[in-house]
Write a structure and sequence with these properties.
By secondary structure, the protein is of the alpha/beta class. The chain is built from nine helices and ten strands. The protein is globular and about 55 Å long.
């Protein structure tokens, strides 16, 4: 059982928590640039740090992400991207600093706060001997998803796996498993999605299909709440096309943040490599 598969009682509380106990979130119309800045803050970190022994992985991360916003997090290997997402997903504890999710300090939150989070990473969190339907029924019961069979049919169709819904996951390609992983992550309709290099190991066609599925889910409201997304990727062009804002993390520090509409693909590439090179020279 994965870290997200808790007792039915806990995850039932998580579902109720998501829908009823988030006072700082409001039902809003579809995301537009004009109203984004006026929306409530979904994710906030202040002076966030993480150390492993004497090695400091995150060094004073200040980040603010609003409801319905899509942030692409860029950076070289070892920059701290995965560590940051693991902390936001409550899979790891920070060494210092503060974190708020939907206005709730993470240090004071119960395990039920995981009910507002969906995670997609290198690991699919799928049971290979089960079919897509069986996997989603398992997670759906853990999260006490209402109208479960209808919801499963919806997410299976959205990721294009309806015809393979009864096949064993072990027979799926990497791309198909990642698409099913999206269905798993979105099944309980979380308002916050954390995507850690979801296209790793995929060919271009599979990566494009996955990106479209993420766009579809990101644009779909979570219980009438615009969904907030943080995605890490090494694909600069795809990250730019999918996001509202980009941030560059180098050496555990956020060294650049820009709105996506301010950059072209070539401009982002120049900014990224210049920023990384300049930061590395300071080390």
């Amino acid at each position: 059982m994965t870290v997200f598969a808790r007792s039915a009682a806990q995850l039932s509380a998580a579902n109720n928590f998501m829908l009823e106990s988030l006072p700082n979130l409001t039902a809003l119309p579809a995301t537009t640039d004009a109203n984004l800045d006026s929306r409530p803050v979904m994710v906030r970190t202040r002076k966030l740090t993480k150390s492993f022994g004497h090695f400091q992985v995150l060094r004073g991360i200040d980040l603010e992400l609003r409801q319905g916003e899509f942030l692409t997090l860029l950076g070289p290997n070892g920059a701290g991207k995965t560590t940051l997402l693991r902390i936001l997903a409550t899979l790891a504890k920070p060494t210092g600093g503060e974190i708020e999710l939907a206005g709730i300090p993470l240090s004071q939150a119960k395990a039920s706060i995981r009910g507002i989070i969906g995670v997609i990473s290198h690991q699919t969190y799928l049971y290979e001997d089960l079919s897509p339907l069986e996997n989603l029924r398992f997670y759906g019961k853990m999260y006490d998803v209402p109208n479960l069979e209808k919801r499963i049919a919806q997410v299976i169709e959205m990721v294009g796996l309806t015809r393979r819904a009864d096949d064993r996951v072990r027979n799926f390609s990497r791309g198909m498993q990642q698409r099913l992983s999206i269905a798993r992550a979105i099944l309980h309709n979380p308002p916050l999605l954390l995507l850690d290099e979801p296209d790793t190991g995929l060919d271009r066609h599979a990566a494009d299909m996955l990106a479209q599925a993420i766009r579809d889910f990101g644009n779909h409201d979570a219980g009438n709440l615009p969904r907030t997304v943080i995605m890490t990727t090494h694909n600069l062009e795809r990250g730019l096309a999918m996001s509202d804002r980009l941030a560059i993390l180098v050496g555990g520090k956020l060294v650049q943040q820009r709105r996506s509409d301010e950059l072209t693909p070539d401009g982002l590439a120049r900014l990224y490599y210049e920023t990384v090179d300049a930061s590395n020279r300071k080390v």
